[in-house]
Amino acid sequence: MLTALLNQQVFTTIHYSREELRGLRRKDVSFVCPHCSSRLTMKIGSRNIPHFAHMSDADCEKVRGETPQHLLSKQLLYDRLSSLYENVSLEHYIKELKQVADIYVKTDTADIAIEIQCSTIPISEIVGRTYGYHRQGITPFWILTQSLKSKKLLNLTTFQQAFIRYSPPLDYFLLQFLPDRGIFQLYTHLFPVSGTAFMSAAPIIIPVSKFTLPISIPDAPVLHPYSLSTWTNFRTKWVYNKIHFNKTRTDVFLREVYGEGDTFLYLPLFIGLPVIPHGIHIRNHEVEWQYYLWKDCLKKDRLFSVESVSKALYRRLIKGHIELRSFPLQKSDEVIKRIADGYLRLLEEVHVLRKVNDTFQLIEPWSCPDHFSAFEKHQHDFFPKWKHILKKQ
Ligand SMILES: [Zn+2]
């Protein structure tokens, strides 16, 4: 904690030098917790930011154990926001919610609660806190400060994925704060190639001295180092992994493909197209959910619409064959409909479907190649159309 009560007044360590704080500690003045009124000790090391701690963690429900990273993040963000707004408070207690926001900003138009998240907590807690803030008319702003695994692809845990948000110029993005370097990294144009690996544009660096609410993006062009031209490779890799690591008899998806008499290895390339941007909401690989749509809808009905395809996706969701990612910081209205719409448009672009008024129709009847040379021919015919789609991204 960076704040305590001293003689009923709020006292914040970050406004004092280490020497001044040591002087106060020598005088043995009595700092108490604003939440549970128990006495606090002041910790003044040479490395960490001076802060208060309970004598024992069990004393207080409101204040969780804090890492040096968390303390530093609070100080940097508090300093920056205090230079922008008059009314900024640290470790602000919200009576109605019985919880403490790391930083609280009152502007002319909004109340903003900043939550700095270093440790992994249940996603249900993020959902609950976010909902609570909205109910009180407060805008929550969550900041992830965990380190991310990033090489060619960005690898994100389910918890880290919960911080993904959407904004049209950035598509799906993730904001990460690195307090030790005093910068934010903004990963934009995220698109998954598996349950945990994501393609992204090169991260945009925003120094904390440029941080604003909402965050403003520098005007530099977005770089796409890992373009979708590699999508075919990721798709193929996924298909082979599926065969290697799954038992055909127990895999729900493979059982359905074989039951239908289709050859999994030779599924047409228009099953497994990247539906950018909203396809990210579905945790399953594109091959899986798009195959289900073919089976349930496209090859069965003569004419179909965005609505009928959306309904088919919902039915698979309810059966548990398809799973959605949890993006609690992001409104996900009509996401299924947007995905269905995006997929049908793609199929129209690659000349698999034609549009007839408000409905769609297959241009040629469905057939799955059943041996390698037939698949090769399909690849050969399809690739020019597909290449055009991938190049656009
Ligand atoms: Zn306390």
Automatic annotation (TrEMBL):
Organism source for this protein? Answer: Rossellomorea vietnamensis
Q: What InterPro entries does this protein's entry cite? A: CoiA-like_N, CoiA_C, CoiA_nuc, Competence-induced_CoiA
Extract the Pfam families matched here.
Answer: CoiA_C (PF25166), CoiA_N (PF25164), CoiA_nuc (PF06054)
Domain Competence protein CoiA C-terminal intervals: 229-359
Q: Kindly provide the name given to this protein in its UniProt entry.
A: Competence protein CoiA
Competence protein CoiA-like N-terminal domain location: 15-61
Domain annotation Competence protein CoiA nuclease-like: ranges: 66-202
